[in-house]
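User: I'll paste a sequence; please echo it back and then give the predicted structure.

Assistant: Echoing your sequence first, then the prediction.
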Amino acid sequence: MILFLTVLAVVLYWVEKYSVVHGLDHVSFKTSLDKMLVEPDEPFTWTMTVKNEKWMLVPYLRVMEFVPRGLRFAETDKEVEQKGIMGLRSVLYLAGRQKTELVRSVKLPERGRYFFRGTSVECGDFLGVQTSLDNYPEMVEIVVKPKAYPHGEISLLLGGYLGDYAVRNSLFEDPVLTIGFREYTGREPFRSISWTQSARHNRLLVKQQEPVADLSCTVLLNTECSRGKYVSMLLEQTYSMVRSLCEELEKKKISYDFYTNGTIAGAMGNWKRVEEGLGATHLQTVLEGLGRMTYDVSESLDTFFMRVLKGAHGGNSFVVVTPARTERLDELVAGLAERTGRSVLVISAEEVMGEEELKRVEQENNKKERKLFDGLEG
């Protein structure tokens, strides 16, 4: 009996010692998201996968997942982070060769670039006497697009500027205009012959045509702003307005390219221009860039317009979206209009919103900041 108890004590000692030193060996933690780009308040699935790849059980795991600030549960709208807690805590038991998935539906309410930064893990020993700690850092990114501007000013402004394109495109099956007639050479399509003019001049004449309009537009986003406490608020509204503008262009089937002097965070490279295009993929590229935009400026207003002017030519249509108008901006816009021979539409967030709307949004932002500060204090 004594021998049995002695052997049992030795076995328990080595099992206990092994569980303290090697409890987290061959245990892995991985964060995954089902979407990388989402709308504000759009639910997405956040999964933590925990694998124990050894035969020995792990009797106690306390997992702390570090989550983006502002993350909320989709079903309850409750914040994942609570006062005094840095992330989301879970307690697990893992049998040998077991995999567990913790699946949650969550959402983020504000535009921006967010990270799930991995886990901190506390592992209990075999006898429940000691614990060991370890960190498993990760950097899993998700980008939230800007909200569409909630009012109808953008549609009205763009409709007034580019409305003639939509009219002309609907009047002609092919958006071309007959500008004259010339003699038929035999190489032109038979349908291009004008029988009325041919009969009048007693010889075959064909129509000379040119495009009615260049159905394209260049969107310029300026982020240079000197409005003090209003800068971040005006820029957020500017990003929302650019989104609404691009969506209007998509609805009207007007292709567009995109320039900015803003700074983008992340892996999209030197995001100063998106080439001309149209369609869902093109729009999503622009929206992802807007979601990643910071409040910094990558080049001055003058340098920005010099770059744009290099590629501008007669007939180009330009829409400038800016936080606020300045005398220098108006001078540069006048130069662009002179270069292209077309008026330039300028959309200023400050002008579109108006003083009352600015104050209202500022009050909302102050409430959010106070709530965030209270949460940090608690």
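Confidence is low (pLDDT under 50) at residues 7-14, 164-177, 372-378. DSSP finds eight helices and 18 strands in the chain.
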